[in-house]
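#struct-queue
[09:14] JT: dropping the first one here, sequence first, then the structure tokens:
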Amino acid sequence: MRILKKGTAAILFNVLLTLSLNVLAYSPLNTDDAGTLAEHSNQIELYFFMINQFDPGPAIEGAESSGENYQGVGTARAIPLVYSRGLTSNIEASFSPTTYITPKGDFSPIANYTLSMKWRYFGDGENGLNLAIKPQLILPASADQQVYGIGNAMVNGGVTAIASYFWSGAELHANLSYLRAPYNSNYMMGMAFDANRTNLYSASIAPVWVISPQIKVALDLGINTNPNEPEQSLTTYAMVAAIFSVTKDIELGLSYQRNAANYGAIFSANELHTSRVQAGVTFRFE
């Protein structure tokens, strides 16, 4: 169902519109960094996320949550997996499917098969200013998966421009993204036939502080096109995250995010918002 009160944001999209984009980012952040894997090296990111919507009052009869490309009704729980490989010293390729624990239905729980390639065209990936660009392709979901909001039953594609600056004790990352997200209008999207936008944009920024060689903490802020029409055109999100390096090749990540119509609603205890908790691990190997 859609929110019936006009002007209230029901679907709250993650940056890279979660474009399942946050799955392909600097886990557990939504905002990606301009660094790339070394040539012939590999990385696996395995995360669990849970999305919940807070509904503050009777003005909202039905609402939808969104995140990791989820546009269904109610709570979602899923495990996105990302496999990345360094093709050259400054180009890496990634493949990412997402397995949904909930919602369940008469369809495959695996959706959002995403292919992407990141090209770092300026900088060394570790010091000073670095610039990269990352195109991606999201393969079609089934009609039933689209009905439940866990994917679009058409090919999606997009591109992200990435800028990073690395200091010895801090990092700053910024993304600008575009997603062409058509869907099969013959079927419901997230249990509704309401119109959705197909041209989606997002911008985000993420400062990261290096507390010690083992610990980083981050703040991730973004603004996104709201895919729902005719509701308000933009939504926002804020995230806090921590990354713990067990070894140089194993990292644990934890993040908490809120999406809402604006930043005032994000930080209010009594406004409609969607929250997402994400936790997981990153492995690197030759």
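[09:21] JT: and here's the second one, same format:
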Amino acid sequence: MWKVLEHGSATIAYQDYYTLLDQAAQVFSLSMCRVVFLADRGFADTQLMGHLQSLGWHFRIRIKDNFWLYDGKGTLPRKTGRFRLRAGHPRFWHQVEITQARFGPLHLAMGRPLDSNERWMVISDEPTSLETFREYGLRFDIKENFLDDKSNGFQLEASCIRSAPALERLCLVLAVATLYLVSQGTHIVETGQRRRVDAQWFRGSSYLKIGWNWIRRAVSRNDKTLLNHLALSPQPDPEPAMASRKQHDKRTQPRFYGEVREAA
């Protein structure tokens, strides 16, 4: 689901995108899957959280330092930015309410990762723990897709299209192309042929890029070994991408004391 807006800010109001949630809910209802909504601080909106709850979805949303927090025990209210956080030592609050509207009850995970000075404050509809940070961290996987849309693949910005309706139609083309290229790329990796188009010892390219390179190879050689169907495996990634061994080792280090992270 997508919607292209002509907008002067990166922050989008709930009223501008809430219809997309209902459209997505119609699709998800067919599979009866458990949905967990992940979002950064730009989507820290109690209207959104209420909508997600009405859909039966769960959420992990990062909130800002200026949110009021209430716990009903006399130790709060307090702005989240006033809490002192030691690097690597997370704090968890349960059955709290947020904003002066006292929205809740919700659950909060607060922490400052060992490798960063950033403060993570993640609000959840379910009790929080170290697992909450891991789940929220899955949101960063979307950056690989952004890279494929831009400099690593489709060069979307280079189209110089300024019309929102035209970009919305172009997004349909890119979505279909992405689905096919990722299907082709995952198939190549699963069948052990990756190094024919990605020569690194470990996977350095996205699945979309691997699929794209395989199609180029097939066309140049008049090869007929192209996937004739769409198939995305529900299994865990057999070979996670690594830009470099150093970056991979850093990414797989625990962010908080007590956290166990497995290296790929």
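[09:30] RK: nice, looked through the second one.
[09:31] RK: The chain has two domains: 14-140, 150-233.
[09:31] JT: good to know. The radius of gyration is 21 Å.
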